[in-house]
Write a structure and sequence with these properties.
Elements (H helix, E strand, L loop, with lengths): L4 E5 L3 E8 L2 E9 L3 H14 L5 E8 L2 E4 L5 E4 L2 E5 L9 H10 L5 E8 L6 H19 L2 E5 L1 E8 L4 H10 L3 E7 L3 E8 H13 L3 E3 L1
Antiparallel strand pairs: 1-9, 2-3, 3-8, 4-7, 4-8, 5-6, 10-12, 10-13, 11-12
Helix pairs in contact: 2-3
């Protein structure tokens, strides 16, 4: 089986769709990794567009991979949150979040800034506007794929180096932290699709590990 990957942003991106009945819709997409990132970016955007009518948002934080009884993988987001910012209920956050989930894209904050154009849009037009603004921005945004990984720590003797290096190569593991003393201590990251197979080989070859 191949690696498990997820889609996210390579960098922040902003796009404005054509006006809808006079209203402007500016979508800002931001890559996030922590709740602090979200709070900081929301504060910055609200300050930048302090004169906007609404700054609605949705975000998907964290990536989780799970296997079912048939060994099929499903990928989901740890946390999803959104806010209508005083637009009529469900006319902003739900379409924004729906587009992000349909893509699907992870570790992303999407803020749609609206400047009211002095014409009431109504529920249907609002849903369409927030959907299209998010969708079109994603179509232009710089997206990348990243691995879904798990970490584990290894402790082994110098005589076992060649064996461990072979396993690193076989499962494309990446060393995050390492210390060389009387024994070798390493923390590595491995794609979740390879994790169980690597653990089995570590046990077979008597390499000490902790998850």
């Amino acid at each position: 089986m191949g690696k498990l990957l997820y889609t996210t942003l390579s960098e922040s991106f902003q796009y404005e769709i054509p006006k809808i009945k006079g209203s402007r819709f500016i979508t800002t997409l931001i890559p996030i990794n922590t709740k602090e990132d979200i709070d900081n970016e929301l504060t910055k955007t609200r300050k930048k567009y302090f004169d906007a009518t609404h700054n609605c948002y949705a975000r998907r934080l964290g990536v989780e991979a799970n296997q079912d009884l048939f060994l099929n993988w499903t990928i989901s987001s740890h946390q999803e949150r959104a806010n209508d910012d005083w637009e009529p209920s469900n006319t902003a956050w739900k379409p924004i979040l729906s587009v992000l989930a349909w893509k699907p894209i992870y570790n992303i904050l999407a803020i749609v800034t609206r400047y009211f154009g002095w014409t009431l849009l109504g529920v249907w037009w609002l849903i369409q506007a927030y959907t299209e603004s998010t969708k079109q921005t994603l179509e232009h945004a710089p997206l990348i794929q990243k691995e879904i990984t798990k970490e584990l720590s290894l402790n082994y003797n110098y005589e076992q180096v060649s064996t461990v290096q072979y396993l690193f190569s076989k499962y494309e593991s990446k060393v995050i932290i390492e210390n060389y003393n009387e024994i070798i201590n390493q923390t590595i990251a491995v794609n979740v699709a390879f994790f169980d197979s690597l653990i089995k080989e570590l046990i077979d070859k008597q390499i000490n590990y902790t998850v």
